[in-house]
Specification:
Distance between the termini: 10 Å
Radius of gyration: 10 Å
Shape: globular
Number of domains: 1
Largest sheet: 4 strands, mixed
Structural class: mainly beta
Number of strands: 6
Length: about 60
């Protein structure tokens, strides 16, 4: 587990992500993943952040 405002990439891969801002679980977190740049498909391996559909917060991914 990471400290502060970040999400472990392994948790994103497992599909078990809790928003550190509102503390709610994000369903299907890869569908809310963000990549800052051009890619064909957003995946857990290239995601840089996750947008929370509840609070609209953005949390960065850490390796």
């Amino acid at each position: 587990m990471t400290d502060g405002n970040s999400i472990d990439r392994d948790r994103l891969r497992a599909g078990v992500v809790e928003c550190p801002l509102c503390e709610r679980q994000i369903p299907e977190p890869v569908t809310h993943a963000v990549v800052y740049g051009a890619v064909d498909t957003v995946t857990a391996d290239n995601a840089e952040a996750v947008e929370c559909p509840v609070c609209d917060g953005v949390t960065f991914i850490s390796d």
